[in-house]
Design goal:
The complex is a heterodimer of chains A (491) and B (496). Chain A has 491 residues and is an all-alpha fold. Chain A is 76% helix and 2% strand. In chain B, strands 1-2-3 form a three-stranded mixed beta sheet. Classes of the chains: A mainly alpha (491), B mainly alpha (496).
C-alpha cells in the first residue's frame, strides 16, 4: 500500500484527538482504542522499514503535490526508528493499564491516552518528515504533549517540573524556529533536500553558520546533553513512570535525529566546514558521558539514576556523531535504537516496582529481588545492558564508537567510553546489593507481590530484546549502513 | 597440529558450557530441595566432564573443534574453538568442578542461601569453560566479565559487613581490569583487523610501537588483575572471607586461572612469541612476575591464618605461570601450561583441607593445627602431598613445573631465573614445613574428645585431588595424560 507512510503519522494523531470523545462515559475503552491505533502504527512502520531495507529511501508527496512546493514525507534508513518508537509505545500502553489507575486521577485517564497517541503520531511525523517547517511542527507537538504528560499525574511539584521542562523546551524551540527562519530567508525553501541544494549557492557565510550553530544547540537541549540537561532529571522524577520510559527512551532521541536531519543541509553546501562542529560535539559528548554517569552514581532514587544515565547515554551518541567516522556514526545510530529498548526496560521495571511496593529509592527497595524476582531480574539485565556488557544490546553501540575513536587516532575518547561503563558497573553493584543481599528496610517489602501480567509482560519482553538486540545486532547495523555512508559523504 | 590443524565443527564444545548453564537454571528453578539440587549439580558436572573427556582423544590427535554460536558483533562473532590450550584448561576446570561439587555439598549442609550458592557456582563453571573455548579475544572478554559478575554473589555469600566489603573490593579490582581488557580488545581489533585466537600471533610491527605497547600494557594489566600480579593482587587475600569451596573455586579453578589463561592467550596468540621476542616487553613482565613470586612468599610467611597463607601462596604460584610464559621459550611454555593444572590440584587440596579442619575442629589459625595429623591422618596426609608439591619435591606435580621452567630459562639464556626458582622453593619450604611439623610431630592440644577424621563428603574430594597431584607429578610422560595436551599446545604456539 502506497499510503502507509502518511497513515502511520495520521492515524495516531487523529485517534489521539478523538480519544476523549470515544472514551466519554466509557473510560475503560480509552486504552483499547489507543492500543489499536498504536498497533496500527507499528504495523505500518514495520511495512515501511521492510520497504526501505529492500529499496532504499523513498518519498511520499502529500496530496500529490510534488516537492519542493508540496509537503514531502521521506522515509530513509534512520526513519526506521519509527518502528522502535511505535513498538515501545505499544508496550508502554499495555503497561499503563494498571499503572495509571493509581498514578493518574480517574477523569484524566482518557486524556492520558489521548496525549500518548498524539505524542506517538508526532514522533513518527518528526522522523519521517522531509520538510523543515513540519520538523518544527511535529517537534512542538511532541514537546507540548510531553509537558502535559509530565503534569498529568497532578500535584504541585508536577506543575513545577512541567513548567521547568516547558521553559527549556520553549527556549530551544524558539531557537530552532528562528534558525529555520534564517534558512528560509536565505534559500526561499523549506524542503530539506531543496534547502541543501540551494545552500550550496549561498554566498553569505555568517547567517549559515549562525543557523547551523543555533539548530545544533536547540536540538542538543532537546536531547538533554550535559550541560543543557537541567530540565531532564526533574521532569523524570515527577512524571508517571511509563511517561519516563517514553521521554527518556524516545523523546530525547528526537534531538539526535534532528541533528542527523540538519547536518546534510550544511554538509552539501561546502560553504561551512563541519570539522570544528564535530570536534565540539565529540568533546561535549565525552563530558556528558562522564558527568551523567557520575551524577547517576550518587542518586538514591532509581528513577533519577536512570534519568542521569540517559544524559550519559546521549553523550555516547553525540560522541559517536562527533567522531564523524563510519564506525563511530554507525555506533551512534545503533545506540539510538538500542538505548531506546534498554531505557524502556529500565523505566518500566522501575515503574513496576514503584507501583507494587510504593518505594523508589535503593534503601527502601531492599529485598525487592526476593519479592519481585522477575521484575528485578529484568531491571538488572537492563543495567547490564546499559553498562554495555556483551552480548547485550548496549555493547554494540559502545563497541563501534570505541573502535571509531581509535580508528580516528583518538584513543582518549575510547577510554572515556569504557570509563563510563565502569561507573555504571559501580551503580550495578549497589543495586545488586540492595535488591538481593541486604535485609529489607521495610517490613512491608515482605508482602510485596510480583507485578500483574500486563506490567510484567512488557518488561520481560523488553528485557529479552535487550539481549536479542545485541545478539541479532547485525540487522540494524546493515540497515543503517547506507544512511551512514550518505551522511558522511556529505548529504 | 603444525599450524594446519584439522578443524571440525562440533556441537560438543557449546554443549559443555551450556550444560553448566542449564544446571544453574534448573537449580534456580527447582533447587529448593537438597536432594534435587545435589542431583542437578552432580549429574551436570559428571556429564560435562564426560563431554570434555570424549573430545580428548580427538584433541590429542590434533583435531580442533569449532562452533560459531552467533555473529555478534557483526564480523567477529561469539565463536568457540577447542585447541590444545583451551582443552587443557577446560579439562582441569571440569575435573575440579566434579570434585568441588561433592565437597561443597558436604561443606554447606545447613548453610543459608544454598540455592543461590549452587546456582552461581554452576554459572561460574559454565563461564570458565566458555572462556577456555573462546575462539576470539572478544568471546574471551565476554566470559571474563560474566565470570566476575557470577562470582560476586559467591564472594559475599556470608553477607557479613566484612564479606560485603570484600565483595566491593573484588568488584572494583576485577571490573577495572575488565575495562582495561576491553580497551585492549578494541585496540587489537583496530591494529590487526581481527581478534582470532587461532593463530600464533596476529599483530605485527607495522602497527607501530607506541600502539603495540599500549595494547600490551592494557591487556596485561587487565588480565593481570585476576592473575594477581603484584601490585594488582589486593582483592585476592580480602576475598578469603568467602566460604571454603568458593575460595577453592576462585583460587584454583575459575577466577585466577581466567586471568592467567587470558595472559597466555595474549602472549601466545595475540602478540605471538616472535613479535614479543622483537619487542622485548616480556622482560618487564618477567620482572614483575619474579618480584611477585618472592614478595608474595615473604608475605605468606608472615600470615598466621591458614587461609591467608594459602592466599599469598596462590599469588606467588600464579606468577610462576606468568614468568614461564614471559620467557617465550618452548620448554617454559610447557611449564606455564602444565602449571595451570599442577597449581590447581595442589591448591584445591589445601583449601579442602583447611575447610575440613575448620568444619571438624573449628580451627583456622596455623598454630592451632598442632597434632592434627594424629587425629585426622588422611586429611593432613593430603595436605602433606600438596605442600611437598609446592616445595617441588620430585615425583610431585610442582616439580614438573619447576623443572621445565628452569630448562626454559636456560633455553632463553637467562640463568638467574633458576636461582629465583631455588629461592622460591626454599621460601615454600619455610612456610609449609612448619605446618607439617606442627601437624605430625606435636601433641594435639585442647581438642574435645571424640574429634575424628573429617566427614566422608569432605574427605573423599580431598583425597581425590591429592591423588591427582601425585598422578600429575609421576605420569607426566605417559601419553594421553593432560601433559601431552600441553605439549600439543606448545607445539602450536611456538611453531615447532
Amino acid at each position: 500500500m502506497a499510503h502507509w507512510l502518511p497513515l502511520a503519522v495520521l492515524v495516531p494523531l487523529v485517534a489521539g484527538a478523538l480519544t476523549p470523545a470515544v472514551a466519554r462515559g466509557r473510560p475503560a475503552l480509552a486504552r483499547g482504542w489507543a492500543l489499536s491505533a498504536a498497533l496500527f502504527s507499528t504495523l505500518a512502520t514495520a511495512m515501511l522499514t521492510r520497504r526501505v531495507a529492500r529499496e532504499g529511501p523513498f518519498s511520499y508527496a502529500m496530496g500529490g503535490w510534488a516537492p519542493p512546493w508540496g509537503i514531502e514525507l521521506r522515509f530513509d534508513e534512520f526513519s526506521a526508528a519509527a518502528l522502535f518508537i511505535s513498538f515501545i509505545v505499544v508496550l508502554v500502553l499495555v503497561f499503563s493499564g494498571p499503572y495509571v489507575l493509581r498514578a493518574v486521577p480517574r477523569p484524566r485517564i482518557p486524556w492520558y491516552y489521548s496525549l500518548l497517541l498524539i505524542n506517538l503520531g508526532a514522533m513518527i511525523g518528526f522522523v519521517v518528515t522531509g520538510d523543515l517547517f513540519n520538523l518544527f511542527v511535529f517537534m512542538e507537538l511532541v514537546a507540548v504533549s510531553s509537558y502535559a504528560l509530565v503534569a498529568v499525574g497532578g500535584g504541585r511539584t508536577a506543575a513545577l517540573a512541567a513548567f521547568k521542562y516547558l521553559v527549556a523546551g520553549a527556549v530551544s524551540s524558539t531557537l530552532i524556529l528562528f534558525c529555520i527562519g534564517v534558512l528560509y530567508a536565505m534559500t526561499g525553501s523549506l524542503n530539506m533536500a531543496d534547502v541543501a541544494l540551494r545552500l550550496a549557492e549561498v554566498e553569505a557565510r555568517a547567517p549559515v553558520v549562525l543557523a547551523l550553530v543555533g539548530l545544533v544547540v536547540g536540538f542538543l537541549v532537546k536531547a538533554g546533553l550535559f550541560p543543557l540537561h537541567v530540565w531532564l532529571p526533574d521532569a523524570h522524577a515527577i512524571a508517571p513512570t511509563p511517561i519516563n520510559a517514553l521521554s527518556s527512551a524516545l523523546v530525547v532521541k528526537l534531538g539526535i535525529i534532528g541533528l542527523l536531519r540538519v547536518f546534510p543541509l550544511f554538509g552539501a553546501a561546502g560553504a561551512v566546514s563541519l570539522a570544528p562542529l564535530y570536534d565540539a560535539l565529540a568533546w561535549l559528548g565525552a563530558i556528558s558521558i562522564l558527568a551523567g554517569a557520575f551524577f547517576a552514581l550518587f542518586q538514591q532514587d532509581v528513577k533519577l539514576m536512570l534519568a542521569y544515565s540517559t544524559i550519559s547515554n546521549i553523550g555516547y551518541i553525540v560522541l559517536g556523531l562527533g567522531l564523524a567516522g563510519e564506525l563511530a556514526v554507525t555506533g551512534a545510530g545503533i545506540h539510538v535504537l538500542n538505548h531506546a529498548l534498554i531505557k524502556a526496560t529500565l523505566f518500566l521495571a522501575a515503574g513496576a516496582m514503584l507501583h507494587q511496593s510504593g518505594y523508589r529509592t535503593l534503601s527502601d527497595l531492599r529485598g525487592v529481588g526476593h519479592a519481585m524476582p522477575w521484575t528485578s531480574f529484568s531491571l538488572l539485565l537492563g543495567v547490564l545492558a546499559i553498562a554495555g556488557l556483551p552480548p547485550t544490546a548496549g555493547f554494540l553501540g559502545k563497541w563501534y564508537i570505541a573502535l571509531g575513536a581509535i580508528q580516528s587516532g583518538r584513543p582518549g575518547f575510547a577510554v572515556v567510553v569504557l570509563l563510563g561503563a565502569l561507573l555504571v558497573f559501580m551503580y550495578l553493584g549497589r543495586m545488586l546489593n540492595a535488591f538481593y543481599f541486604r535485609a529489607p528496610t521495610h517490613e512491608r517489602m515482605l508482602a510485596v507481590r510480583e507485578a500483574p501480567a500486563s506490567m510484567l509482560g512488557p518488561v520481560l519482553l523488553l528485557a529479552v530484546l535487550c539481549v536479542l538486540g545485541g545478539l541479532q545486532g547485525r540487522w540494524p547495523v546493515r540497515l543503517i549502513e547506507p544512511a551512514v555512508v550518505r551522511l558522511l559523504g556529505g548529504g | 597440529m603444525e599450524g594446519s590443524a584439522i578443524e571440525v565443527v562440533d556441537l560438543r564444545i557449546v554443549l559443555a558450557p551450556a550444560l553448566s548453564l542449564a544446571c544453574a537454571l534448573l537449580i534456580f528453578a527447582f533447587g529448593r530441595r537438597d536432594l534435587w539440587r545435589a542431583v542437578f549439580a552432580l549429574s551436570a558436572s559428571v556429564l560435562k566432564l564426560a563431554i570434555v573427556l570424549s573430545m580428548l582423544p580427538g584433541s590429542l590427535a590434533g583435531t580442533v573443534y569449532v562452533y560459531e554460536l552467533v555473529d555478534f558483533p557483526p564480523g567477529i562473532g561469539i565463536v568457540f574453538r577447542a585447541d590444545g590450550l583451551g582443552m587443557f584448561f577446560a579439562l582441569v576446570s571440569s575435573t575440579l568442578w566434579v570434585v568441588t561439587t561433592v565437597y561443597a555439598i558436604g561443606y554447606l549442609q545447613g548453610a543459608h542461601e544454598r540455592v543461590r550458592f549452587f546456582g552461581f557456582f554452576a554459572l561460574c563453571v559454565s563461564t570458565t569453560v566458555g572462556l577456555a573455548f573462546a575462539e576470539n579475544l572478544l568471546t574471551l572478554f565476554l566470559f571474563y566479565e560474566l565470570l566476575t559478575i557470577c562470582t560476586y554473589p559467591l564472594v559475599i555469600h556470608d553477607e557479613t559487613p566484612e564479606a560485603m566489603k570484600a565483595g566491593r573490593k573484588y568488584l572494583a579490582y576485577t571490573l577495572s581490569g575488565g575495562v582495561a581488557v576491553l580497551l585492549g580488545v578494541v585496540l587489537v581489533q583496530d591494529l590487526a583487523g581481527t581478534l582470532t585466537l587461532a593463530e600464533p600471533g596476529i599483530l605485527s610491527l607495522e602497527a607501530g610501537r607506541p600502539m603495540l605497547l599500549l595494547a600490551f600494557v592494557v591487556l596485561v594489566a587487565g588480565f593481570g588483575v585476576k592473575a594477581a600480579i603484584m601490585p594488582l593482587h589486593g582483592w585476592l587475600p580480602t576475598a578469603m572471607v568467602a566460604p571454603v569451596p568458593v575460595s577453592a573455586l576462585l583460587h584454583a579453578v575459575a577466577v585466577v586461572k581466567a586471568g592467567v589463561f587470558g595472559l597466555l592467550r595474549v602472549i601466545y596468540n595475540i602478540f605471538g612469541v616472535e613479535l614479543l621476542g622483537v619487542l622485548g616487553y616480556t622482560h618487564w613482565l618477567a620482572v614483575f612476575a619474579g618480584f611477585t613470586i618472592i614478595a608474595a612468599s615473604v608475605m605468606a610467611l608472615a600470615q598466621t591464618h591458614l587461609k591467608l597463607r594459602l592466599a599469598y601462596s596462590t599469588v606467588s604460584q600464579l606468577s610462576y605461570i606468568v614468568l614461564a610464559a614471559s620467557l617465550l621459550t618452548p620448554l617454559a611454555a610447557l611449564a606455564a601450561i602444565a602449571h595451570i593444572a599442577n597449581q590447581a590440584f595442589a591448591k584445591i587440596t589445601m583449601f579442602f583441607v583447611a575447610g575440613a579442619v575448620q568444619r571438624t575442629t573449628g580451627r583456622t589459625q596455623i598454630h592451632e593445627l598442632a597434632g592434627l595429623g594424629r587425629v585426622m591422618p588422611w586429611t593432613m596426609g593430603a595436605f602433606t602431598i600438596a605442600a611437598l608439591s609446592f616445595i617441588a619435591v620430585p615425583l610431585f606435580a610442582g616439580f614438573v613445573t619447576k623443572w621445565f621452567l628452569c630448562l626454559g630459562a636456560l633455553q632463553a639464556g637467562e640463568w638467574w631465573w633458576v636461582l629465583l626458582m631455588v629461592a622460591s622453593s626454599l621460601l615454600n619450604a619455610a612456610y609449609w614445613l612448619p605446618i607439617l611439623y606442627l601437624a605430625w610431630f606435636r601433641e594435639p592440644r585442647g581438642l574435645p574428645r571424640g574429634v575424628r577424621e573429617a566427614r566422608a563428603l569432605l574427605l573423599a574430594p580431598t583425597l581425590v585431588s591429592a591423588a591427582y597431584v601425585l598422578l600429575l607429578g609421576m605420569t607426566a610422560r605417559v601419553p594421553g595424560m593432560p601433559f601431552s595436551l600441553a605439549q600439543a599446545a606448545v607445539r602450536f604456539v611456538t611453531g615447532i
